[in-house]
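Problem: given the chain below (363 residues), write out its structure.
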Amino acid sequence: MGAVVVCAKEPKLKALILVALPLVVACACGCSPWKAAAGGRGTIRLLGRWDASGAPERIVAVNPGSSFEFRFTGRRCVLHFDRSANKPPFPELWVQFDGAWGREVVDRDSIVVGECDCAEPRRHQVWVVVKALDEHQARWKPPLVAALVLAGVEVPEGRLLAPPRRRKLLFEAIGDSITEGVLAVRGGKLEEWTEIADARATWAFQTALALGAEPRLIGFGRQGITIEGNGGVPPAPLAYPFVYEGVPANERPADIVAINHGGNDSRVPNIENGYLNLIRRARERNPDAAIFCAVPFPQAHAASIERAVAAARKEGDANVHFVPTAGWLDRRTDTTEGVHPNTQGHEKAAKLLAAFIRKTLRR
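Solution.
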């Protein structure tokens, strides 16, 4: 998934979003019959996993950690959402405006970003990250309840610019509730689920940042190699190629892939074959990536994962690596309730994994 072309009839009208894919070449010449906003065409860049098939009306994410970034000139911008299917607890976002982060609850159709009091319009940079969605709500079979639906980016008194430069590396993380940040903030009740979860704090997002890479998080609570996830999500090997049901993931290959699965597969004694299948699927989608298979932090199915990695290497895939994680976290101090890492635990795991990756790849 790359840049998204944004065109508007007038600066005061809500921007329309069109995906700049090879098949939509008409957008590159001004989105006829639309004319570009004053000063030319602008774009937003999608990071992570998105469904952009419904553009310009809607762009959809069901994975916390998915994000988009853009730059603009003006005093403020407005993010517009389609909340018609959302229910409490509502999606939450992290919004970075000119380097400063703020948390937003998507409990209204439009969110104003910036509100600069400057005398003259200035250049600004925005990065919006899906902090949390409620894993218990429907997010695989439409109608999607746990989803962020972006309907537009508006710059009422300015214009969108080219987005920030794309990061050289792309880091993809495939996992479960730990990867999507469940209970990373603190313990709490179901009605607080999006408040107490935080994808940006996770081992996955923080490892990407430590490596200077673009993050792509694919995490679904309760999901495993052999077990379906909450919200109607199939087991990981079946779900992985899709954004959600019926929507294939259309995204650029990753440079580094980290798998953190197996913690939810307690009902079976062995996950080797299913895990090997997930490695193969990750390889199909990321032909040149280094794939790191981490033992889940609670130390589940370590032997099965090690055997799956050995089998993949025996098949000729030498760029698959087993990551032992024993001793990385102290469940008394680094987890919220003995299983899910807290922010401190995620930070420790990210530092250790990033160091393991650098040593393996000699970077």
